[in-house]
Amino acid sequence: MQPLNTEPGMNRTVAHVSEVAGDGITASDAQPKLMPRPVRRMIRSLNGLSFSALIRNPSAIKAALAIGMLGLGSFLVQEDRIGGQALASASNNAGFSVSKLVVNGAAQLDVDLIESRLSSHLGKSMFNIDVESARKSVGEMNWVKSVSIKKAYPDTLVIDLVEREPVALWKSGQTIYLISPEGLVIDRAKARHMHLPQVVGEGANRVASEFLAVMERFPELVSRSEAYVRVAERRWNIVLDDGPSIMLPADNWQDALAELNQMNAKNQILDREIVHIDMRLSDRLVLKLPEDDAEIRRTRIEKAIKRSWHKT
Predict the structure, then answer these.
(1) Closest alpha carbon to 68 in 47, 48, 87, 89
(2) Last residue of a domain, which of 27, 48, 82?
């Protein structure tokens, strides 16, 4: 028999199993760098295994068959004596078709969706699986930040993935989505995600991460905030769950937040009967009172002006 694959100056086959000597069977020192890693592992598992133990161990029998088929398949394909389809069929019949998926790291992502993505690979010969193609298919899912896929012989694909961490809820139209720190829409939000901060408005998803990072410096404001509204893709409004709405400027909004936090600590401005706190002007703070309070205050001012006029 011709060598399966040799290097210049060498006359050894890629994988060679020594003849049975008595009751023992051992794997010789084949060229390890030229052999696929799974085959090297199977050879190590067979090394020193007695023949009587081999025939009682189904896994060992499969491993031995795999080594034989891979070596024979490589030889025949190189010699143009058999096609890959026939080799795949032989490996499937020997139990080396993909029948199991092991998914690690999927806390939020539905495993059924991953299986659906890899449906075209299920049932295929382990030797014909394109791992890179499978990895790209899973990696295109919005939940997936990174993923690796490896074969676990005889019949399993192991998927190790890292999920994206949602940073906020984004309300666009009537739909609420989960968004990543990069502003990527991950998925529709579910009830279990309602503890996340909510941003609203066109373009809010793209700048939410920066805004929320600054807001973390002001826990009192965060604890009272119901939503953060992006206005005209230029600036933010803060909607409190019990208190006035806050209109931040387009520029220097970080300084405005710090000023508001100081005013509230000193004067409890967020607890007063105020409808809006307008901080858009750089040289003044504008407070809008409720209509009833505004009317009472206006009447008091008018009466005070009249009294002053009569005294002159």
Answers:
(1) 87
(2) 82
